[in-house]
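I am writing to request your help with a piece of structural work I have in hand. I set the record out below, with my sincere thanks for your time.
___
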Amino acid sequence: MKLKKISISVFLVLIFGTWTFSFGSFISLMEEHFSLARGNQSPTTFSSTAQREKNTDLRFLFAESERFLSQDINLLLGASDRETTLENYLIDGENILSSLNYLESSLINEESTITSTRNTCETQLNQANTLYSTSINSNDENGFLSSVESAKEARTCIAEQHVNLASLQALRNKRDRYAQIIDARVSYLRNNQDLIIRHYDILKPQLLSNLYKISVDLEQSSL
């Protein structure tokens, strides 16, 4: 297989082939990550489940994950309509998780594609090395020049796929961290939803103080 030459600048770009998602360049993605980490960007609100697949852009999901995890739980549960507010929050988290999981399956498929491409390039390099040795021994100038050119192209391809795999793994690791934390929070709140709705007010400092005073008064009155 004849591989086209690529410039060094391509090494800085995630070339993931034909994707369901719009990832953009690696540099752009990292700029987005650092911008979110500094709090310089206000992500949009996550849409309904019906639009989940259309909102599976990686940067969008990272932004939505940050937004979900940064919400003040105490403020959320202190709302007068606590039951509705909590349910909406849980649905929001479940939608984000669903999209993160949908994304993961595509990342796995893309990793397989990149690995396959790298293996093809490694096969080409081995063939070029064999041709190189044969040409040297037989004084075949054309074969020698062809083997050198093929080896250069194969090594360029291998280096590119190495960058792609490393970058993809970094993104998968970040996706995994978000999914793990969000899943733990949603599961905990969902499992304790009824208890929280009925009794969360008891954690308010003033109410705890009043309950303690009542307890003391009752104890004193029984003496």
The helical segments are 26-38, 58-70, 73-77, 82-138, 141-191, 193-199, 205-221. DSSP finds seven helices and no strands in the chain.
